[in-house]
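Appendix B. Raw example, untouched.
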Amino acid sequence: MIEWALSALAVAIAALTLLGSLYKQARKKSQNEYQHILTEISKIRERLTAVERDVSWLKNNR
C-alpha cells in the first residue's frame, strides 16, 4: 500500500513538473511572440513617420 502511494506520488510530481515545464515554454513563446509583434509595430511606426516626412517635403516643395 505504501509502495503504491509513493509510486502515485512520484507520478503526480513528474506530471506536475512536466506541466510546469510546458507552461514555461508556452509563456516564453507568448512573450517572444509579443516582443516580435512590438518590434513589427515599431518598424511600421518608423515607416509611417518616414512617409509623413516625405509627404510633408513634397507638399513644401511642389
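End of appendix B.
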